[in-house]
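hey so i finally got around to running the thing on that chain from the lab meeting. sorry it took forever, my laptop kept dying and i had to restart like 3 times. anyway pasting the input first so we r on the same page abt which one it is
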Amino acid sequence: MIPVRPVPIRLTPRLASIKHLSDASAAKAHYVVLDGLRGVASLLVVVFHLFESYQNNPAKQWINHGYLAVDFFFLLSGYVIGYAYDDRWPALSLREFCVRRLIRLQPMVIVGSVIGAALFYFQGSPEFSLVVSTPPWQVILLMIVGAAMIPVTPAFDIRGWSESYPLNGPAWSLFFEYIANFLYAAGLRKLSNKGLWVLVVVAAVFLVHLAVTTPRGSLTGGWTIDAQELDIGFTRVMFPFFAGILLTRTGARLKINHTFAACSFLLVAALSLPRLGDASQLWINGLYEALCVICVFPIIVCLGAGEQRVDGASIRIARFFGDLSYPLYITHYPLIYIYAAWVLRQHPSLSWGMLLGILTLALSVLVAYLALKFYDLPVRRWLSRRLLTSR
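ok and heres what got predicted. didnt touch it at all, straight out
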């Protein structure tokens, strides 16, 4: 019998690259606590928007710094992007990276725009006087434009808030998220750690300058397509997104007990602290918010990344809210429009306002859960099979 010698299989560069991507994906752990913290931040955003319906005075708002959840999202996004993709270049092309990000984010953008259009005519009030005079064809056009993530100028305002995405306001942050993702993939990923440090420090300086000089006395803003708001949006995204990538590269982690509960408490406390300073000292509040983004949020992320467990009651809770976080963030605001219009029309008592607010929160969670289970996950699986697996 003639012995058969095994023939070594030589992988072509392309096949080797595919194998490398597959092995890298399989080997990476999943930061469940960080996902859960994104869910906590999403819930805080919804509650902040509910309370915002009652108070136009920033000094008296509950969950006063709730809008900083967006900056926390940017930091988490940078961390996850760096963790998932930093070691996959050049085997991963720019086109494939963009396809992967579109598959992850765009399906829910479309749903948010559709829900916004479907509920638009329920959002009329004296303060939203443009709603009743907006023709249906314009709502449909803005739905299509919003679903394609194309921002509009204040000339297309249909509510009175000059939003870049009039049917679903929070989509403005996805606009800057996409830009940050593209900047990373198109070239900034090639920066050495030293170069990335320089970028992050410069971005932090711009962030502090914005925080202490803005007439608002806060880091809020970025949702309008004009020079001032675009400057705010880019300033808000550049530091946290690339700081998140830097945290991934340096491997910064901190370990404590009860990580998810402790990090959730720190995040809630940071966003709920009353406004600092008075009308003559707006810079104090701005400085606090800059320190939250530059110092507090990175510490929370390092603590969350230090938790390696994949089971336990708190981890299961974190996983649930992590799955729900993005659908909740991108679909809740059409319901907030309706709630805000009702408050402005009816001026309800505290008890009625709380009852309807709780129901709005519960409905927002339900809509997000249904969109996740019956639309987002199936659509992303289908798109991945069609656009990624076959390659």
